Amino acid sequence: MTFEMLFVLILIVAMLAGLILEVARPDMVIFSALVLLLLSGILTVDEALSGFSNEGMLTVALLFIVAGAVQKSGLIDRMMQTWLQNSKTQTDSMLRFFVPTSMFSAFLNNTPIVVTFTPIIKNWCEERGIAPSKFLIPLSYVTILGGTITLMGTSTNLVVHGMMLDFGLEGFSLFTPAVVGIPAVLIGLIYLFTIGTKLLPDNKGFSQRIKEDSKEYIAEMQVMPHFPHIDESVKRAGLRDLKGLYLIEIMRGDERISPVKSTTLIHAGDRLIFTGLISTIADLQKIKGLQLETGTNIDLDDLKNGTTNLVEAVVSDQSLLLSKSIKQSQFRSRYDAGVIAVHRNNERINSKVGDIVLKPGDSLLLLAGTDFVEKYQQSNDFFVVSSLDTPASLNQSPAKGWFSIAVLLVMIMMVTLGWLSMFKAMAVAVLIFLITKMMTPEEAKKYVHFNVLLLIASALGIGVAMRKTGLAEWVAGGLLDVGEPLGLMAMLFIMYILTNVFTELITNSAAAVIMLPIGIEMAQTLSLNPTGFAVLIAMAASASFMTPIGYQTNLIVYGPGGYQFTDYVKVGLPLSLFVMITSVLIIYYVWF
């Protein structure tokens, strides 16, 4: 092993450790590794920047915009809501929802699909007394599986395709992944409708928990100078025995009084920290001299006259709010919305609302203006923004919705017939949407997840370093030494498992970029079809079911479903095994 190979290997191990330990955002960790490779002289400037001009990465950027245009129309939302209204049983509902959803995700980026459908499913479930947790993990899983059907269904397939072109190989056609993707979807749906649904938890919906669980949410009231019980005890002020509400702490300057005794005196300026029912807190605000602290100039009384509404927002893993308290992030001035409650993984957070340090997947209950949902629906700070009172307004006519879908279908046909490459077809689609004013350039920019593109482009540069230094060839040789005596089938399982472990621990695109050069080297050494290894790695990198962090859609449903980390392991492990066995067997017999 040369010094350069050792340096790249150590850097990749350090990068993986940084991703697993979440020392910074994934895109920044991988970009930092790329910069070190550039500074060390292992990569030239052109080589380091090659990922930023990779066809697969640029196609992902265009697909974000195309999916955004279709999502913006609201047509698919309305179609699914109408389709669901006629379902009679839970199994019937799952069939009606997840079969079409898996098809949608074959042609649209799955992240916007999950973002769009999460509030629809959640509200639909709560209206019928069904636990949303029975539907939300399956929603993520079927979109992941559906994305494996086509080249455009997932960023992983596009990244692998782009890297194959860089290797001088043919790359994927639109339906190359379907050979494995369609059987995987069928296996996944059968599993989720039978065994999977029994393993899923039966968690109440977010708004149901607000109404029913009095010990899980935190709210803050401030004692104003005109409060009639200034300098009287908590008991005498009538704050001790409130139905569905419990005073857990009093903040007085720098002093924290907890636990609160019945004899504790109330002073002007005190901040009273309650856990309890939102409805009870609303009633409490009627007491003269107590003011709900929401961080804005709007209050719960405005709900009655329609000037504000209750909004649920799920913090994203790319949010600028992470690692800061709500107060430090200046939530009030940034969003003109107040955080009433924070929900985290069925965990009671014993802290003043403003002092809570937010984490990815946290569900925030906000008191916000009526335009909040529309304004921040596409913000990278939140995964899901949905009103708990009324559904988000749909801003376009059905005609525009049908037009956006027609453009997408025509472009897909062009790619299928070989008239245009995927990149050219999506570029034409975006141009049509801009010329027809289906969206403005500003809107198009909002739909693009630049953090995802930075991650992919940086990871591609690291893949170049692995090939250039010979590290990919060295690792491939080691894997061949271990796997060759066991046979080709065993080697395919080893490659699949390694890629899948990486995607669960880091991210799907990074896992594919690290493993593909190794797979190509193995194919060339064994004189085998490299497409088979490429499909195997793309499938293994996409099939992330066992953790909420491996695939973005898993994290999106984490908070709204009230899931625990172990729920993903319990439901996802059998599905991972079924998909792995299906994929390896098909790839073995089709390509080798």
UniProtKB/TrEMBL annotation:
Gene Ontology process terms (BP): potassium ion transport
Stored Gene3D superfamilies: Regulator of K+ conductance, C-terminal domain
Major location (coarse): membrane
Residues annotated as transmembrane: 6-21, 28-45, 57-76, 97-121, 141-160, 172-193, 402-435, 447-466, 486-519, 531-551, 571-591
Membrane topology recorded in Swiss-Prot or TrEMBL: Multi-pass membrane protein
GO cellular component: plasma membrane
RCK C-terminal domain boundaries: 205-290, 298-382
SUPFAM superfamilies in UniProt: TrkA C-terminal domain-like
InterPro entries: Cit_transptr-like_dom (IPR004680), DASS-Related_Transporters (IPR051679), Na/sul_symport_CS (IPR031312), RCK_C (IPR006037), RCK_C_sf (IPR036721)
Keywords assigned: Membrane, Repeat, Transmembrane, Transmembrane helix, Transport
GO function terms (MF aspect): monoatomic cation transmembrane transporter activity
Pfam families recorded: CitMHS, TrkA_C
Location within or outside the cell: Membrane
PANTHER family in UniProt: BASIC AMINO ACID ANTIPORTER YFCC-RELATED
Designated name of the protein: Di-and tricarboxylate transporter
